[in-house]
């Protein structure tokens, strides 16, 4: 009788021991991996770029000035990127994309419209022959639409080692913060391309964009709705309460890039002059977000998909890397 009464308890104890053992096999490796990665552990969706590769791109040294031949670093970087894309897309063919030629592809589907995304890159005269040239010869190929670089008045006559589509904004200088430059760029997009593209993006000249992934994500959304996408910001700890943001209000941070649906630009841009007159901070991205919220009827949308797209943002100063890459728009 005593033996029979012990059997259920023995079964329970044995089950608990086996359960903890099996759980340890599954959990411990993951914990060790997380601890080894630390705070800089990236999502599997993010590419891994060394500071050397990013530095070569940032300094405009991926391609030799004045010609289409690549340096050793440029060839290595491009070859690495191509191999990675082949692995990620399971051998998707990349034939037909010439070096340095802006691509107007549509995620492998020729039936999709080519005029899908317009990217306006904010730059300055002193960066036209470095960052702008490097960006134009790399990631712009993957954009399913058009890319133009916006700079101060007179930038269209700056001599460059290779052709780059530069828009010289009348009455705009390269002073920082670039609030007027940003708003005038959005107005230019609205006035020239509102009915030609579904999505519009404001990007910095030190960001690397994976156009195929961005296109795949944007095609899952409706551009006829007021959508304002990016990495949500509320300001730093020191800025809390000083940005004139009400509880629940936010903005899309400028570094990783801001994406606007056609409908947002249609609603907001006619009121840009008001937004420029009634600014509460010196932060360009905060004021753009305020204008979108006030006249576009929406605010920055945060989602897991957006987080994956904003994995590494290349931060540059004087065409040199000043820190670890941590948020690149892939």
Helix-strand topology string: HHHEHEEHEHEEEEHHHHEEEE
What number of structural domains do the residues give? 1
What general form does the structure show? globular
Based on the structure given, which CATH architecture is correct? Alpha-Beta Complex
Structural class: alpha/beta
**Mean pLDDT across all amino acids:** 71
- Identify low-pLDDT runs: 26-82, 88-108, 311-330
Termini distance?
Answer: 68 Å
Share of helix, binned: 25-40%
Specify the CATH class: Alpha Beta
Q: Any idea of the CATH topology? A: Spore Coat Polysaccharide Biosynthesis Protein SpsA, Chain A
Keywords:
globular, 330 residues, Spore Coat Polysaccharide Biosynthesis Protein SpsA, Chain A, two-stranded antiparallel ribbon
Question: Can you describe what's shown?
Answer:
The chain is of the alpha/beta class and 330 residues long. The protein is built from ten helices and twelve strands. Helix 5 packs across helix 9 and helix 7 crosses helix 9. The longest helix has 36 residues. It starts with a helix and ends with a strand. The C terminus is likely disordered. InterPro entries: CS_glycosyltransferase, Fringe-like_glycosylTrfase, Nucleotide-diphossugar_trans. Its main location: Golgi.
In short:
The protein is α/β, with parallel strands linked by helices. It is 38% helix and 12% strand.
């Amino acid at each position: 009788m005593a033996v029979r009464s012990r059997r259920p308890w023995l079964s329970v104890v044995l089950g608990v021991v086996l359960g903890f053992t099996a759980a340890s096999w599954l959990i411990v490796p993951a914990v060790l991996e997380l601890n080894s990665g630390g705070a800089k552990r990236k999502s599997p969706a993010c590419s891994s770029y060394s500071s050397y590769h990013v530095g070569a791109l940032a300094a405009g040294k991926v391609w030799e000035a004045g010609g289409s031949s690549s340096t050793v670093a440029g060839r290595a970087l491009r070859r690495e990127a191509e191999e990675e894309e082949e692995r990620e897309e399971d051998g998707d063919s990349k034939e037909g994309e010439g070096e340095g030629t802006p691509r107007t592809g549509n995620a492998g589907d020729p039936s999709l419209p080519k005029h899908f995304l317009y990217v306006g890159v904010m730059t300055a005269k002193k960066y036209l022959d470095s960052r702008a040239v490097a960006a134009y010869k790399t990631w712009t190929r993957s954009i399913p639409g058009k890319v133009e670089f916006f700079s101060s008045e007179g930038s269209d006559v700056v001599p460059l080692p290779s052709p780059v589509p530069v828009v010289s904004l009348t009455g705009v200088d390269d002073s920082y913060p670039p609030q007027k430059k940003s708003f005038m760029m959005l107005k230019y997009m609205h006035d020239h391309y509102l009915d030609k593209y579904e999505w519009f993006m404001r990007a910095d000249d030190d960001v690397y964009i994976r156009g195929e992934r961005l296109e795949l994500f944007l095609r899952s959304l409706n551009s006829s709705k007021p959508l304002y996408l990016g990495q949500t910001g509320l300001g730093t700890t020191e800025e809390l309460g000083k940005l004139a943001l009400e509880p629940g209000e936010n903005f899309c941070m400028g570094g990783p890039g801001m994406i606007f649906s056609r409908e947002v630009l249609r609603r907001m841009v006619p009121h840009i002059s008001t937004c420029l007159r009634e600014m509460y901070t010196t932060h360009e991205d905060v004021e753009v977000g305020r204008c979108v919220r006030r006249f576009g009827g929406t605010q920055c949308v945060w989602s897991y998909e957006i987080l994956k797209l904003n994995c590494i943002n290349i931060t540059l100063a004087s065409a040199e890397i000043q820190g670890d890459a941590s948020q690149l728009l892939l």
